[in-house]
Structure formats: structure tokens, C-alpha cells
Amino acid sequence: MTIIQNTNSTAPADVHSYARPAEAVARHLDLDIAVDFHSHTISGLATYQIENLASTDKIIFDTRNLNIEQVYLGENRAATTFGLGEEDKYLGRPLTISIKPHTSIVTIKYTTQPGAAAVQWLNPQQTAGKQHPFLFTQSQAILARTWIPIQDSPGIRITYSARVKVPATLLAVMSAENPQEKNGEGVYIFRMQQPIPSYLMALAVGDLVFRPLGPQTGIYAEPATIDAAAYEFAEMGKMLIAAEKLYGRYRWERYDLLVLPPSFPFGGMENPRLTFVTPTVLAKDRSLTSLVAHELAHSWSGNLVTNATWNDFWLNEGFTVYFERRIMEELYGKDYADMLEVLGYQDLQKTMQDLGAGSKDTCLKLDLQGRDPDEGLNDIAYEKGNLFLRHIEHVAGRDQFDEFVNKYFNAFAFQSTSTDLFLNFLHQELIKGNKELAQQINPAAWIFAPGLPESFVKPTSRRFAKVEETYRGWKNGQPAAQLNTENWSSHEWLHFIRMLPEQMTAAQMTDLDHTFHFTTSGNSEVLAAWLLLAIRNSYTAADEALETFLANVGRRKFLVPIYKALSATPAGKERALAIYARSKPNYHAVSTVTLDEILK
Predict the structure, then answer these.
(1) d(Cα 37, Cα 221) in Å, to the nearest integer?
(2) HEC assignment per residue over 354-383
(3) What pLDDT digit, counting tens, does each position of 376-432 carry?
């Protein structure tokens, strides 16, 4: 097998970074910072070991709203000149540092601003325990530059160490080797020996405890949450075994989870060794743990093999969704995985409808120049990417495709890849000159054309077919209490709710709610879907649940459609603005940037 070395000089240009890695590139970071909850700032030193590939007189880092106080060269820290360029709305400002041809060490003294977009500062009332403040970062896609001066491109990988000073009552954890208990001094040392891209730099500080789940797995959470989290994620070890069985050895030593406060904007973030996860998956029945399978799968697709630019985001997420579903199939059977496939396809249909069938943003290969790369973090990359890989599996055969994916992960391990490199590898290792197979796979139709090719196979589910039969009974007038819903999973309930008509009578809404208790559901996916129907049908019995949900959940996946639905009418828009004014402090900047646009 050919091992492909994707050097910085051959990697595609990243339009979302000022760095010039072909000239001078960072290889290792030693971070020495202090976290100040009073001023809501992080300050300290970022010391880089660099490689001056072109013997240039400057190296460029990405910054956004950082106060750069001084820059030094070498072990003796001799002061050097530096300059900050003009500010771009999304990219921030380039930090250009004067170096010498032989310079190998650059140290940047800096302080973040209180409004740093990556950093969420929570007061005690915004946490589960209500006693201590909390901090977490979210660096993806290009927010690492708001809390560290860094070459903020997924095509540039660094190893790192860190010394972090926090209040003595709190524990700090990072995307690195982590402590498992507080040390009383509030000083913690971290190491990440595998090279990672900047968007996987992560820090959290709070009143945290650790609970081991197995030899390689465990949970960090607030004391008030740890028991629920340990129950919900008890099968993490089985997921890890299933993943390794499919695509080879896990290369990051430990796989732990950190359960964050509700303001976390995503379901999960695949920070190496320590996935950050939303508490909205704590459904008390392990029904939403496919999210953990997804973040675990990122340990191969994304963390191990990384999209070189955000225009290639589908390489991270398409592979990860495909891998996630394979893990769930391995653990719970094909019928279970098929339900996830259908729900994912429904999400994709909704995204394509919102974007427009002919939109270039429905291509897998994107053009995000001049735009926030977060605009590409949607179900096109996730679900269309997954359908493309399912299509290849269907055409080539599962055994052949698994062999190809294993080769792919090994060939590009700890490197970045691009759509072009993927296509070359696909032709080299799977198609191998077979013109008929190439025509059947038809990569161009999937990657470079909008929408879905005519050849795609729509996912189906035997268990959902029974749900659809039950729905037809309800549609034909059968009362909710007489419907056959015995032993339904949350996926079946979600499918049922998504089938319900947008407009229903008050009697229909009341009958369904009184029978199935949707408004008081402990499952966030089911509740969010029901609340959308409640808004569209002016079902006032859910008003209190709606406001509580919006006040306490910061996950963008739920917030965006609910606020959009509220904003569809003048009265609803007024209500949405009132709720948002109260709830905005509980949301991360990743969510508020989107919501500000919806509610302006």
C-alpha cells in the first residue's frame, strides 16, 4: 500500500487562515496560561517550536480579538517586532512576527478579551451544581484564534503541552492527558503527544469529578450529573471495541467524556482523548448514545485523518456518520442502524429544502471563501457524505469498502487530506482502473453537483414501516390510546412525530399529549420535535415547557428551528425576542451568532 505524505507545501491553500505553512510553520506548542473568572480572561504565554522552511524573515499566526502584549525569539526570549494586520469579520487579524532564518522558538505573550467567541464563561447558576463557575472552549471551526494565537488551519498539526492555573476549588481538563482529581493548588499540567489541528484545542474548568467506566474509558461531570452520566454512557467500552474491530487500533490511549453544562452549542465535540458532550443526551434510557458513537468515530475520521480545509468538511463528517452507523449496527443490529439512517435522511431533506435544490452549498465540495466556515457545518457534509459512502459500499461490496477505508485511515494517519487526494486514493486503491465500477460510483455527481444523484438509494427501515402503519391508523381517526406503540424506542417516537401534519386541531394535539406525554418527555430529541408542532398549532399547554427548554438548552440543533418557527408570525417573533433576551446569557457565541441573524 502506498503511504501518502501530505506535506504543508502540497496541502491546498486554506482561505480561512492567514498562516503560510509552506514558508514557516509551528510544530509544537508549550502553553502557560492562567484562567481568571473575575475578569473573564485567559492570559499567559504561547511558546512555539517552529520550522522556517523557506528561511523567511517572518511567521504569521491567526488572532481574533486577542491582546498581543509582546513577542520573543529563542530560549532567552529576546524581544522582536510584530504587527497586527487589518481585521476581517470572520478571520480576525494576522499576527506577523519578525524572525531570523535560524529561529526555532517563538513566544507570544497575550491576553484574551472577555467576549472571546470560543470561550463560554458560566456563573454558578448556569451550572448543574449552582455553586461554582464554569468555563469551556469550542474551537471549531476557526475560533481557536480567539483564545490562543495560533496557525488556525485544519491542515496544520501540532503537538502541545500546557500548564494551566485555575482557582483551587476547580479542576481543569484539556484535549490531552488529563488529571482525574483536583490537586488543591489549581495548577494542572497537560501533554498531547499526537499532532492535532488547532480546532481540536480544548479547555474546560469547573467543579468536576471523574468516574471510570473501563480500562480506557471514563466520565468527567459535575457531581450533580455524574451518576446519570455514568449510567447513560456505560456502554462506551463496547463502542470502542466495536470501532477497533471495524477500522483498526484506537491511537489516542484513553477515550473519556466530559458532560458540559446545557449551554454547549453542539451535541458533541470530538476533542482528542476527551469528547465534550451535551447533557441533552442524558435521556435516562441510553437512547441517544449514537452521538457518543459519532464522536468516538471521529477518533479515526477527523482527528486521525483531517480535512485540510473547511471546504472539504464532508471528509470529516461523512466518514464519521458512516462509521457511527456501522458501530451502532455492530452493537444493536441492522434494524436499529436503519432507523438512524432514515432519520438522518429526513434531516438531509430538510437542509436541502432550506438551502434550495440547486444551491452550490448542497455540493459536498464547498466554496466558503469570504464566508464563515460554520455555514458549511450542516447535514450536507454529514448525511449526504454518509449516503455517498453508503453508495460506494453498495456498489463495491462491504468487504472491499472496509478494506479501502482501513487503507485510507492508515495512509493518511495524523495528516490532512482533501477531496482531490481522496479521489486519487479512491481510484488507486478501490477502482483500480475498473471503468464500469468508476461509472457506477460516479464520484463527480456526488461531490461536485448539487442535490442527490439519481442513483442514490433511499434508506428504509422495517421498524419505521410499522410506525407508519400506526400513523395511518391515527390519521384515519383511531384515538391515540388505541394505537400500537408498545416498546417503541425514541427513534420510533421521533419518526411518528415527524410524520404528524403541521396543522392539527386542538383536540388532536391534546389527545396525543395526554396519551403519550410529549410535553413532559425527558428525551430532548422527542421534546424538541413536539415543541415545533406546539408552536405551529398554538398549543398553549406546551408554553411553559417551551420557555423552560429554551432557557436551559444551548444546543444549536434545537434552538435554530424552534426560534425560526416562533419567528414565523409577528406575535411569535415578539415572544421569541422576549425569551431570547432572557436566555441569551445561557448560549454560546456559536449559537448566538446564528440566532442574532434569525431574530434581527
Answers:
(1) 19
(2) HHCCCCHHHCCCCCCCCCCHHHHCCHHHHH
(3) 989 999 999 999 999 999 999 999 999 999 999 999 999 999 999 999 999 999 999
Class of domain 18-204: mainly beta
Q: Which member of 72, 322, 345, 382 is catalytic?
A: 382
**Distance (Å, whole) CA 255 – CA 542:** 39
Going across the sheet that includes 119-122, the strands are: 119-122, 134-137, 203-206, 171-174
Strands 58-63 and 66-73: unpaired
- From-to residues of CATH 2.60.40.1730 in the chain: 18-204
Q: Per CATH, the architecture of 305-447 is what?
A: Orthogonal Bundle (1.10)
In the chain the first and final C-alpha atoms are separated, in Å, by 54
Active-site position among 23, 232, 235, 295? 295
- Write down the pLDDT at residue 11: 59
382 is an active site residue:
yes
C-alpha cell at 259: 458532560
pLDDT of residue 15: 96
The stretches of 298-362 forming alpha helices (DSSP H) are 313-332, 334-355
Q: In the prediction, which pLDDT does 8 show?
A: 46
What is the assigned CATH class of domain 463-599? mainly alpha
Known catalytic residue: 23? no
Query: With contact defined as beta carbons under 8 Å apart, do 266 and 556 qualify?
Result: yes
Q: Are 45 and 32 in contact (CB under 8 A)?
A: yes
Which stretches in the chain have pLDDT values below 50? 1-9
Domain with CATH 1.25.40.320 in the chain: 463-599
Average pLDDT, the chain: 95
pLDDT at 12: 72
Q: Bridge-partner residues for 190, per DSSP?
A: 162
Asked if residue 568 has a cis previous peptide bond (ω within 30° of 0), the answer is no
Q: Find all residues with CB under 8 Å of 22, minimum gap 6, and list them.
A: 8, 9, 53, 54
Residue extent(s) of CATH 1.10.390.10 domains in the chain? 305-447
Do residues 195 and 163 touch, judged by C-beta distance below 8 A?
A: no
- What pLDDT is stored for residue 2 in this prediction? 36
**Per this entry, what is the length of the chain?**
600
